[in-house]
Design brief:
By secondary structure, this protein is an alpha+beta fold. It has 8 helices and 23 strands. The strands form 6 sheets. It has a 7-stranded antiparallel sheet, sandwiched between helices. The longest helix has 19 residues.
């Protein structure tokens, strides 16, 4: 058999080219449909996050409830629409769709299912939100906040059964630290309350008298003091004075039961009030006055009851440790503008005059030795160990 060779025939080569294109086209993978979120489980607080969508065509994203409750707590939004929507349409890849959710006030967790549909295919992603650790706005678990390097803070001790807790508040249009305290859930008093003080933090306003529970402490571990104590003639004595914080939110926080101790009127209304006023006056002459106000419960055998019958330990003494700072060094010239003083009072009445008050003054070091405490533990890192020691072992003429 003879074979005839075809010369210069372009048809076979064209056919091969077309076939190769078809082959390559059929081998190109289709864009895989996918849906992803960075945070599949959220905390109880409100929030939002973006959704990553990969699709090769038109798609629909829908929220469906995966529990008995409806999914009205969670919704979708996009750059083009901020309305709360349970379904959105789009095309191709996208990362501008947001998943939003409300705060969960219930202790029960809740969840929903995100479903992405495209060209007859669909993928799903579960999203859940933890239940609240609060009941009616009050914490259900007692836990410490993270320690900071604020100058007003005394030392804390791990494993001593006490809890370090802080509060921030809107003062002058900015959220700043209001105060910190060291809570004793057995005695139901704060061993100390620490806070900065100056004109700006005192601010303007008035006393709110809004006695309330502290939202960061479980109800069973704090005194309920909408009314006064029962079981003795004791007043509700502030550790951070109400008059030190006149901005509304900051003042409200001074009326938490955790800022209060059962205090004899003979002390609270007289020389203790004189000391509080003097401390405010001193703060106005300084850039900042760092204050620790505390109570001593060692040796106490006396108790009163809160409004729910819980026992509250009556302190045996009260103290203040003060660290003043003036930037221009018009005071504390040899200690980089820092000066310190401390006061201690037994829980009884005193003559209410300035001379008697100053007789109760001492160095910070002397108060530390008396109480077995370490005040202003972050001061050495600020000015050095030697200067910090000088501040704590002397009483500058500024205080006299």
């Amino acid at each position: 058999m003879k074979f005839t060779r075809l010369k210069n025939n372009p048809i076979p080569s064209l056919t091969a080219f077309v076939l190769s294109l078809l082959f390559l086209s059929s081998c190109k993978p289709k864009e895989e449909l996918s849906l992803s979120i960075l945070l599949p489980e959220a905390e109880a607080v409100a929030g939002s996050q973006f959704i990553s969508i990969k699709a090769s065509g038109d798609w629909t994203l829908t929220i469906e409830s995966s529990s008995v409750a409806s999914a009205d707590w969670v919704w979708l939004s996009s750059y083009s629409s901020n309305d709360r929507q349970i379904s959105l349409r789009g095309s191709g890849n996208s990362s501008n769709v947001a998943l939003n959710w409300d705060a969960n006030d219930s202790q029960d967790a809740r969840s929903c299912m995100l479903t992405l549909s495209c060209a007859g295919e669909r993928v799903q992603q579960n999203f859940s939100q933890k239940g609240s650790d609060k009941i009616n706005g009050i914490a259900t678990e007692l836990k410490s906040d993270k320690l900071t390097n604020w100058l007003e803070l005394p030392a804390t001790k791990e494993g001593d059964g006490l809890y370090f807790i802080t509060h921030t508040a809107n003062i002058g249009g900015k959220y700043v630290r209001n105060y910190s305290f060291y809570w004793d859930p057995k005695a139901l008093v704060a061993h100390w309350v620490a806070y900065p003080l100056n004109r700006g933090l005192i601010s303007t306003g008035s006393r709110t008298d809004l006695w309330d529970l502290n939202p960061k402490v479980p109800r069973e571990y704090q005194p309920v003091l909408f009314r006064g104590y029962s079981g003795g003639s004791f007043q509700r004595g502030h550790q951070l004075p109400s008059a030190d914080r006149y901005s509304y939110e900051a003042n409200v926080q001074t009326f938490y039961g955790t800022n209060i101790t059962p205090q004899r009127g003979a002390l609270n209304e007289n020389i203790w009030a004189t000391l509080e006023t003097t401390v405010r006056d001193w703060s106005k002459k300084l850039d900042t006055l760092y204050v620790v106000t505390g109570c001593v419960i060692d040796g106490s055998t006396e108790f009163v009851n809160d409004n729910e019958g819980k026992k509250v330990t009556v302190p045996t003494g009260y103290y203040k440790a003060l660290l003043g700072y003036k930037q221009n060094a018009s005071i504390g010239g040899s200690t980089k503008g820092f000066v310190g003083v401390a006061f201690y009072f037994e829980h009884r009445g005193y003559s209410n005059d300035y001379t008697t008050m100053m007789k109760q003054s001492m160095t910070i070091s002397a108060l530390e030795n008396k109480l077995g405490m370490d005040f202003f533990v972050n001061l050495p890192a600020k000015i050095g160990v030697d200067l910090a020691k000088k501040v704590e072992t002397s009483v500058d003429p500024f205080w006299k």
